[in-house]
Design brief:
By secondary structure, the protein is mostly beta strands. It is about 0% helix and about 50% strand. Strands 1, 2, 3, 5, 6, 8, 10, 12, 13, 15, 16, 18 and 19 form a 13-stranded parallel sheet that branches. It has a seven-stranded parallel sheet with strand order 4-7-9-11-14-17-20, with no helix packed on it.
């Protein structure tokens, strides 16, 4: 699908129901060439193994901004992330259910993103981490349920190199929050972290 938004306007991508099949179409989105002012909403995305994940703002395409991913279900997708965000500003991921994604697939991947929010999502049983950050700045992760992320090198939330000014609050989580070197000015408060008696 090619979309060319007019500057200052929003393009909405919405899920639809097949009249013939009476069920949502399975869809996959890769957003190329610095898309901006996009809302991806109301989709069921499932059963893809191409390595790009479910919704992906592609790497090495700087300049994307004002991207909203809202009210989507992403499941059974392997490779990269359910929602993969790279080189973006002003991003919101909200009210999404991302679950049962195999092959070390992260639910929400945030790399070189500034001014972002992940809120009111349910992330469950993905084989990578729940939310993984690299060089992300000025973000808020709040009011999410992040459960059962126990794959290799997986955590509930990873905050890695170059991350700054990130607030993690009011989440219910299994496993741990992993903080790597060179992450600065983090606020972690009012979360429930349940290890489920795992040692």
């Amino acid at each position: 699908m090619g979309v060319s938004p007019v500057c200052g306007t929003f393009v909405w991508l919405r899920g639809s129901i097949s009249q013939r099949a009476r069920r949502p179409f399975p869809l996959w989105f890769a957003l190329f060439d610095a898309p901006s002012h996009l809302r991806v909403q109301g989709l069921l995305i499932q059963r893809f193994a191409g390595g790009a994940g479910g919704i992906s703002v592609t790497r090495n395409e700087p300049g994307s901004n004002h991207i909203t991913i809202s009210n989507n279900e992403i499941r059974f997708v392997s490779g990269h992330a359910g929602a993969g965000l790279n080189f973006c500003d002003n991003v919101t991921v909200e009210n999404c259910y991302i679950h049962h994604c195999p092959a070390w697939t992260t639910a929400v991947f945030i790399s070189r993103v500034n001014d972002f929010v992940v809120r009111n999502c349910r992330l469950d049983k993905n084989s990578g981490s729940g939310v993984r950050h690299y060089e992300a700045k000025r973000g808020k992760i709040h009011d999410n349920v992040i459960l059962n992320h126990y794959g290799m090198h997986s955590s509930t939330i990873n905050v890695y190199e170059g991350c700054e000014d990130i607030t993690i609050e009011r989440n219910h989580m299994h496993n741990v929050i992993a903080i790597n070197r060179n992450a600065e000015n983090l606020v972690i408060r009012q979360n429930v972290v349940d290890s489920q008696c795992r040692f």
